[in-house]
Amino acid sequence: MRFPRFRSLRTTILWLFVPTISAFILLSGLISYQLAAAQLKENAYSSISDTLSQTSHFVNERLTALFTELNILSKDYDLNMLIKKLQNADYTLTPEDYLTINTKLNKIYSDYYSIVDTIYVSLNYGQTIFQKKYDYYSTYDYDYIPYSDYDSNSVIVQWKGFQQPDTSREDTDPEQVTFISMYKFLENRELTPDGFILFELREQFFNDYLASPQISESGYLMLISPDSDIYFKPVDSRYSLQPDMISKIQLSSEPAGVEEMLSADGVKLIVLYDTIEINKWRIAAVFPKNELLLKIESIKYVTLISMGIMMICAMIFSIILARLLTQPLIKLTRIVNKIGNGNLKLQFDKELPNEIGVLSRGVQNLILRIEDLLVEVENKQIQVKNAEFKVLQAQIQPHFLYNTLYSIRQLCDMGLARDASKMVQAMSNYYRTSISRGIEIITIKEELEHIENYLFIQHMRYGDDFDYRIAVDPALYPYKILKLTLQPLLENALYHGVKQQRSKGEIRVTGAFHCGQIRFQVIDNGAGMSAERLAEITASLEDPESEHSQVGYGVRNVQMRLRMQYGPSCGLTYESEPGKGTCVTVIICQQE
Questions:
Q1: Nearest in space to 505 (alpha carbons), one of 478, 524, 492
Q2: d(CA 525, CA 577)
Q3: Element (H, E) at 129
Q4: Which of 407, 554, 565, 591 has fewest C-beta within 10 Å?
Q5: What is the spatial distance between Cα 261 and Cα 447, in angstroms, rounded to a whole number?
Q6: 456 or 33: whose pLDDT is higher?
Q7: CA nearest 483: which of 545, 554, 544, 434?
């Protein structure tokens, strides 16, 4: 991707910085809105779920306590003794019987006054009745108790919604009479139901806890049982649950959950429900989904307004920033442009502010450093030329040339013109490579040809005193190497190695890739050297420019040139043992 080119830094800042900041503002605003909306939604669900759970827990706790009292009363000794007495048709209830039973009922009623509306005990199939009621003037018919559902060990908890007007009170609305009750059968000796105990619960108890929580503006709580469902506050028909929705919640296998449903008018409703453990009734919190999203919508508008304000501020800030940055930079640019004309003697404004001043001083220091580097490079070039000249001098030694010419003359005197011709050709190739028109870097193949000419000449001179073998990976041939790198090492191996022993000598040259570098080894089986001499050579190779170097000019110049060309990690290393020969390793960087 290519960015457009602008004529000035100020234009660059305005056209790149402003859109970038705007994009970040938009992105951060959208992310913040999404996170805030998700968190708000989660908090709303969590709050409603907590309210629902607390309400369910409290109702369950109170009903469980009343459930326990019902069980205790059904097993009461005095009540069971009275049941036995009534099995005798001639027995007549005494005032003490009424007093005993009513005392127990009064205690339960006083302890659970906020929950219990009526305590009703029916014995002997309705012929004997004990009753404690909130309203002494109203009477009810409890013939709806289903004796056919009798289970000797069960407490049946049930609600019933039915119309039974109180004829003694004119203000009673039969459509609003709701009975929520729990009852237990009482058995006789034949294990058949002889009566029952019934606790009728106050509707106000449920109303206090199911009508007061503020779910949302149109939200509400409701009770759902297998028999019916009860609302405890007026509900708009648009937000009421359809029968199939109520049935789905009641039949759900999960004790708590959340559902999204549609009302009869197509309004999306969120339903959170929990279970009252004692009787498996459901308490459901119902509210329209759009009311939950109202606050989210307000956050969206606030976010949009905030992003607009921030984008305007970013544009103003960009204009100010462009002006503050470009004015001192223009001054610095005018000074630096003079460098292109070769003028390194520049005067910098030391009063430039902040980072621009640091940049100005940095450029000034850089120019000073460039001047130092130019001097250093010039000195290095002189050193390289001197080293190259010394290497060239070391190669064109008069005694080597004289000895080679003398050997050629001997071959001619003996009539071995062909061998003399080969030796002349080898010497010609040897000096051609040494001189090589001033070229410093040649291919490895050319370097190998050079040392092969040198070894051939020496082998012709010394006959069977030594053998040589060159084993270099052909894959190295195209790569470059400094000229005259291996020949000084071979000369040392010949004169200081194999010629210092009486047995026949051998010189081997190997080369291959190793760990991303090129490694050559010059190995001889000559006299070797002592540990002290090896330490001196190793120390001298670490500082080849030292005047006290313990190695010859040829090896020292090879080490210096390798270090200057390839860096301190490359160069020569020696390994040797007395009587076992010497191995010189040459490491150069991989270059084609």
A1: 524
A2: 10
A3: strand 128-133
A4: 591
A5: 88
A6: 456
A7: 434
Mode of pairing for the β-strands spanning 505-514 and 466-472: parallel
Nearest to 521 by CA among 529, 513, 509, 512: 509
- Which phi-psi region, left, alpha or beta, contains residue 437 (left: φ > 0; alpha: ψ -120 to 50)? left
- Whole-model pTM above 0.70? no
Q: Which helix (H) or strand (E) holds 55?
A: helix 18-74
Contact 197, 120 (CB under 8 A): yes
Q: Count other Cβ atoms within 10 Å, centred on residue 171.
A: 5
Cβ pair 38, 165 in contact under 8 A: no
Non-local CB neighbours of 511 within 8 Å, separated by 6+ positions: 444, 471, 472, 473, 476, 518, 519, 520, 521
Residue ranges of the chain that CATH labels 3.30.565.10: 396-589
- Which residue bears the tokens 């073998």? 469
For strands 220-224 and 517-524, give the pairing.
Answer: unpaired
Give the residue among 183, 195, 184 at the shortest CA–CA distance from 84.
195
What pairing do the DSSP bridges indicate for beta strands 441-443 and 480-482?
A: antiparallel
Give 497-514 as a 3 state SS string: CHHHCCCCEEEEEEEEEE
Over residues 306-334, the pLDDT tens digits come to 888 888 887 887 777 777 767 777 777 77
Three-state SS for 398-421 is: HHHHHHHHHHHHHHHHCCCHHHHH
pLDDT tens-place string over residues 527-577 = 888 888 888 888 888 877 666 566 677 788 888 888 888 888 888 999 998
Taking the C-alpha atoms of residue 212 and residue 214, their distance in angstroms, rounded to an integer, is 6
Strand partners, 513: 518
| Residue 491 CB contacts under 8 Å (≥ 6 apart), including other chains | 454, 554
Token pair of 398, please?
Answer: 């008069």
**Highest-confidence range of 80-84, 126-130, 585-589, by mean pLDDT?**
585-589
| The dihedral sign for the CA sequence 373, 377, 383, 387 | positive
Locate 405 and state its tokens: 């010419």
3-state secondary structure of 479: coil
CA-CA-CA-CA torsion sign (229, 232, 234, 240) = negative
Distance CA(129)–CA(132), nearest Å, equals 10
CB 555 within 8 A of CB 488: yes
Pair of tokens at residue 563: 């270090």
